[in-house]
Amino acid sequence: MKIEKFSRLHKIPNSPSFQKKNFFTGIYSSGKTTLANIVARSIDSPYLAYDELYNYRALVDTEELSDEKFANASNLVFKIINRYESYCMDAIPAANIVDLSNFKTYLSGRCDISITIIKCSKEVWLSRQGKGKPIAETEYDEFYYGGKAPIKSWEKLFRPHEVYYYDSGSDYFCNSLSELYDKTQY
User: Fold this and answer.
1) Do residues 120 and 31 make contact, with C-beta atoms less than 8 angstroms apart?
2) Which of 26, 73, 105, 130 is deepest in the core (most CB within 10 A)?
3) For the chain, which residues make up each domain, given as ranges?
4) pLDDT in tens, 45-60
5) Which CATH code, of 1.10.10.10, 3.40.50.2000, 1.20.120.790, 3.40.50.300, is assigned to 6-183?
6) Please, are residues 33 and 10 in contact by the beta-carbon 8 Å criterion?
7) What's the pTM?
């Protein structure tokens, strides 16, 4: 479904019925923040910027990254999202094994959460990179196609009706992960 007026996302025929708590995931520069903001405005829900909540300082200046350090870094995210009845967050708070365990606990027994998997073609993704910024093209391939591609694991955490697929290069919601990958071939 083509998105013609972002501010009226909820009025577009066949658009997803977003839940109260919405997570948007994809590689950096994939369009997570843009879509999370659009949906937040459309469903009158707060937008939560993951990077502003995650305590990255808990991970720096350390010789060893322990489970405890990762837990300390993600605790604030879970404390804050538990305070909101609804929200749109531009990431999934599960960047490592400790966060993933916390996230699975958070999801347990809930029916008010959705995830939108966001992808664009590699060509579009490369065009979004800032000038002078070093680009590691392999990151895109590893994120979406690698043996441990996180996208494939996120889908398994949710029931099918809770997962949406968005091609940010053409502003189009797909019906499945395979359709999303087909539309965004590079």
Assistant:
1) yes
2) 26
3) 6-183
4) 999 988 777 766 555 5
5) 3.40.50.300
6) no
7) 0.81
